[in-house]
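Entry 14: structure prediction run for WD-like domain-containing protein. Input pasted below.
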Amino acid sequence: MKSFTRLSLTVLLAASVHRVSANFQHTAATPLIISSIVPLGEYNLTVWSESSAPPVAIAEPATVACGTNDVTCSGSHKATSSICNQLINQLSANGGTVIGNSPRSICLGQGGNQCCVSWSAAVGNMPQGDLFNAANKVFHSCFGTTISGLARNVELNGGCVTQCLSNRPTGCE
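Run finished. Output C-alpha cells:
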C-alpha cells in the first residue's frame, strides 16, 4: 500500500480582535464551521467561518503610512521556510481567487508543520493575491531555516492592517 502526505491549505476566522495594529490579540474563539472545501491539486483550500462574526473596525489608509509593509522579524512561532515558500507561491498562483468576507488567515500544512499568513482585521472579500506582497516581504526580510515576522501598515481591500507570517493562524508574536 502506497502512503503519501496530502498538503492542506486552510483559511481560518479569528473570533474577535481587540487591537488592530502591531500584535494580534483575541479572546477564546467560538466554534468555527467549515464553509467550503476546494481541492487545488494536491492541496485543499478550507475556509473556516462562524455564523455571526462581529465586524472589526480597520484603520483608514489615509490616517497612517498604509502600504509601506514595515517588517519586524520575530523569534516566536517560527514556521518552516520551505512550507512558507510554498504558501507564498500558492497566494501568487491563486491570486485571483476571492476569499470571503471575514476569513483571517490562510495556512499551508504538511506533516504536522504549518505556515500561516494572517491579518489583524476583517477587510471584506478580497483576492488571495492581495496577501502576496507583505508575505513575500516578511519572507525575504526574515529568511532563515524558520520564519516568523509581521508587516505593519499593510493595505488590504481599502483598510490598513498588520499581516503576519508564522506557524499559527492568530498572529506571530
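Notes: The radius of gyration is 15 Å. Will compare against the previous run tomorrow.
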